[in-house]
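From the methods appendix. Each design record in this collection lists the tokenized structure first, followed by the designed amino acid sequence. Records were kept in a plain field format so they could be parsed without special tools. The example shown here is representative of the layout used throughout.

RECORD:
FOLD TOKENS (200 positions):
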């Protein structure tokens, strides 16, 4: 497997999750992130494996502050998911540009529908390493190719929670505006949760 074809950002996020989850005193419980990273390591080439190990050591050491900041963001998103589900128990949660996120297993809710979307190479690898655990729908494609909206709304377009964690800052303004407009026009009684980064 050549990890150069997979979003390195997605892998870095997974490493942060796994590092924090492995700490004895951490209140962030994510055993699936640990498993996902272990399996990713098992299929990685020698060079890619060494890259993962270097990044893992960094987040365990001098990069610990960065990792904790990311985990705080994860918890904010998880809390938003729990609140939305409490108010809309039969909702659909869509994780846009999901990467190797393991939120599906963290929230552990069987009443909702859960969907993940990311580039084909990311989805293919996630299926490969977690095939015996995937119990939800995954869609291969770009977030900006809004044909995914047709797929997720074929049975209705209400009570959706769309998660865009660490996503919109990568888009040119015109693409972000177009996606906002499309989501706003095609989903009803729904919410979009996202984070933003200051230009400074």
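DESIGN:
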């Amino acid at each position: 497997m050549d990890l150069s074809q997979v979003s390195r950002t997605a892998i870095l996020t997974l490493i942060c999750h796994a590092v924090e989850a492995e700490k004895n005193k951490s209140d962030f419980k994510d055993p699936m992130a640990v498993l996902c990273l272990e399996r990713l390591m098992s299929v990685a080439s020698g060079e890619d494996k060494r890259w993962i190990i270097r990044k893992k050591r960094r987040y365990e050491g001098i990069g610990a502050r960065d990792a904790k900041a990311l985990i705080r963001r994860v918890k904010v998103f998880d809390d938003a998911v729990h609140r939305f589900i409490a108010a809309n128990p039969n909702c659909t949660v869509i994780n846009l540009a999901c990467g190797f996120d393991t939120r599906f297993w963290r929230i552990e809710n069987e009443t909702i529908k859960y969907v993940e979307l990311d580039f084909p190479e990311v989805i293919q690898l996630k299926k490969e390493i977690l095939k015996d655990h995937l119990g939800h729908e995954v869609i291969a494609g770009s977030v900006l190719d809004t044909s995914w909206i047709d797929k997720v709304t074929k049975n209705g377009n209400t009570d959706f929670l769309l998660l865009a964690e660490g996503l919109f800052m990568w888009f040119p303004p015109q693409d972000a505006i177009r996606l906002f407009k499309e989501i706003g026009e095609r989903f009803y009684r729904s919410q979009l949760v996202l984070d933003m980064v200051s230009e400074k």
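APPENDIX NOTE: The longest strand covers residues 113-118.
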